[in-house]
Amino acid sequence: MTSKQLKESTDYLISKGFEAPEIGVVLGTGLGRLVDDIENPIEAHYNHIPYFPLATVEFHSGKLIYGLLEGKKVVVMQGRFHFYEGYDLIDVTYPIRVMHMLGIKKLLISNAAGAINSNFKKGNMMLIEDHINLQGGSPLAFKNVGAFGDRFTDMSEPYDLDMRSKLETIAKNENITLQKGVYVSVVGPQLETKAEYRMLKMLGADAVGMSTVPEVIVANHLKLPIVAVSVLTDECDPDNLKPVNIEEIIEVAGKTEPKMIKLFRELIKII
């Protein structure tokens, strides 16, 4: 990754009409319908953006969407890239750097995750307060990283306190259950064994997924305030573990999605 590549990607999007977005949004698995609310949308398919990772079959519909939401200029990633698809972590996080170059000042992230905390139920949402990186690498581990920000990026408070507080208030006002906890990011794509779920619980994880953490690390590298919410799509109880049902996970994400959209829209309105 070079500054020249980032500039070419950004210039392409500006030429398409992506003009000075204020807020970036990353939508997780089964959580793509926020884009239906965007006014005057302009779309750019990942395959057409210079230096964007090439879309896999899963991401043929992957695109950046620009427009107005609650009166703010937003740029939304409908579909993200995952480490488990064979991309490296620099590729996975490239879109975050492009959105930052376009001008975003805040970043909102959503994901689908499994509930490890036995007090959390599928269909709940969890505000991520902290994370554990078990992906075995860093999106900052490359030679010229110092050209883009501090190599030794501080991660003492990776998730913005102000936006977290605002989301908690919105959830309370809207009577939406919003749990709080620690998200652990693993490589995947296989799901965890019973023994692995027990280990993750011992490590202090409340939810587990296969994304988000690399994007959060890069956002902190760019000093870009970030907030992240997990939609809990299944319960990872090692003593009562059932075979995974991806269709059911997508269905739970879809049912919970309107609440997540409500949280994000209300937050965008006031930040």
From TrEMBL:
GO BP terms: nucleoside metabolic process
Q: Name one GO molecular function term.
A: purine-nucleoside phosphorylase activity
UniProt pathway annotation? Purine metabolism; purine nucleoside salvage
- Could you tell me which residue ranges the Nucleoside phosphorylase domain spans? 22-269
Enzyme class name = transferase
What Gene Ontology terms describe where this protein resides (cellular component)? cytoplasm
Sorted UniProt keywords:
Glycosyltransferase, Transferase
Q: Which CDD domains match?
A: PNP-EcPNPII_like
* Record keyword Nucleus present: no
What Pfam families does the record tag this protein with? PNP_UDP_1 (PF01048)
- Family indicated by similarity: Belongs to the PNP/MTAP phosphorylase family.
- NCBIfam families attached to this UniProt entry: PNPH (TIGR01700), PNPH-PUNA-XAPA (TIGR01697), PRK08202.1 (NF006054)
Q: Which PANTHER family match?
A: METHYLTHIOADENOSINE/PURINE NUCLEOSIDE PHOSPHORYLASE, PURINE NUCLEOSIDE PHOSPHORYLASE-RELATED
Its function, per the record, reads: The purine nucleoside phosphorylases catalyze the phosphorolytic breakdown of the N-glycosidic bond in the beta-(deoxy)ribonucleoside molecules, with the formation of the corresponding free purine bases and pentose-1-phosphate.
Q: What is this protein called?
A: Purine nucleoside phosphorylase
